[in-house]
Amino acid sequence: MPKNKPTSRQTGRSAHANFSGQHLIRDKSLVRRMIELARLSPQPLVLDIGAGAGALTIPLAQEGWRVLAIENDPLFARKLRGKLVEAEGIRLAEADFLEMPLPRKPFGVVANIPFAITTAVLGRLMDHPAVPFRHGVLIIELGAARRFTADPVTQARILGWRMQFDLKLAEPVPPDRFSPPPRVQCAILTVRRKKEPLVRPSDHARFMGLVTQALRVPAAPLYGALGPWFTPAQLKHLVKLLRVDRSVPVGVLNERQWAAVFETMIRYVEPYRWPKACGSSRR
Ligand SMILES: C[S@@+](CC[C@H](N)C(=O)[O-])C[C@H]1O[C@@H](n2cnc3c(N)ncnc32)[C@H](O)[C@@H]1O
């Protein structure tokens, strides 16, 4: 008879390790690098989303940060609770980050997040400009980091983030820095709220309404994609302003050009023609 495998209780690891992306940092120099990047824009409060056994939580607190460690796996939460005496300034929330209320005061994020929920995590931080998220240093999949930072931006949601935040692929991180190593390459993504957003936060929902519809088919020619809202005369003005040909695919516009499209709409297009706002500008 084959021997029984040890249960997750016996190993102290969750049975849903893959789904929860429990790839713990095993390299102290990676922790130091993340802290160094976080120092570039220090925030009074830092969230460690998916704190695990505290590879980032404890050093962050030892560096003097106030840390909110969020972990939804009871086994890890228990482990981390046992370590809280090692450093002051840590609060542990045993919770699902996607469901819990977010802080109301400005905060940063330094985290090695579960890859399966990367987009949802970033969405919670950046979909609503009223969320007081200021600066992030996050380990995510290299492929995702490339997608979030690529030019041009063809996905409306990512474009929305980039109108308010600067996203940068800081550096790749090889899988052997984690235990167990993930099957994919990883990267550090830094996120910093722009001092001057490209669209006013109060206009964000209206902007999202426009780009969600206009970017439905990124390969569509600009004239056709923006045709539902702009008159031919307004489109003529727009292509001059953007310095593009009327037939370029709408998906090639960069963030600044989108800001100009939006401004033009607000200025010249009659409000009854504007696309419906998408979501809300509030959290
Ligand atoms: C990649 S590990 C990082 C652990 C630790 N920060 C480290 O770097 O060693 C991701 C962690 O997120 C936790 N996690 C997964 N989904 C979560 C969620 N929805 N809310 C909070 N934590 C979650 C997992 O249990 C796991 O401990």
From TrEMBL:
InterPro entries: KsgA/Erm, rRNA_Ade_diMease-like_C, rRNA_Ade_Mease_Trfase_CS, rRNA_Ade_methylase_Trfase_N, SAM-dependent_MTases_sf. It comes from the Bacteria. Keywords: Methyltransferase, RNA-binding, S-adenosyl-L-methionine, Transferase. The keyword Transferase applies. Residues 30-195 form the Ribosomal RNA adenine methylase transferase N-terminal domain. It holds the Pfam family RrnaAD. Signal peptide: none annotated. S-adenosyl-L-methionine binds at residues 23, 25, 50, 71, 96, 112. Belongs to the class I-like SAM-binding methyltransferase superfamily. rRNA adenine N(6)-methyltransferase family. This is rRNA adenine N-6-methyltransferase. It comes from Paenibacillus ehimensis.
